[in-house]
Prior knowledge:
This protein has 149 residues and is α/β, with parallel strands linked by helices. The protein has 6 helices and 5 strands, in the order βαβαβααβαβα.
Amino acid sequence: xxxxxxxxxxxAVSHFVPMMHxxxxxxxxxxxxxxxxIDPTVNPDAAFRAVVARAAASMPSVRFHTLPLVExxxxxxxxxxxxxxYLDVVCRHNELLHDFLRSSRDLHAVxxxxxxxxxxxxxxxxxxxxxxxxxxxxxPSPLAAPLLP
Length: 149
């Protein structure tokens, strides 16, 4: 039976694309892969939504699950309060992530984006393995090209 790894990527192309490369590598090693993603409309950047759509369409072996926006979810805007709003959005969606992870079959591990550390408590409550993924800096543009709009 395949072990499932759930990826919980961030809300930026530079954080999402490396996770999708990880998804491909996990598939090649025989893991089932699910991506839990807070509704991409939380990020007003159309390029991010396009990359998410392209990844979902080009990776049929990966199960993409969108966590719906909770009431009064702030929109992420690039200003001085961005990180605080980002952490707030992640916190507001922890219970939805918990429910999704609890329903996942044969959950082996959850790989969390470095800016979504607020989700680590959810994974700990479930007794699952957690890994923290930090994207390379700068983003690997030649590798990202197949997913970029």
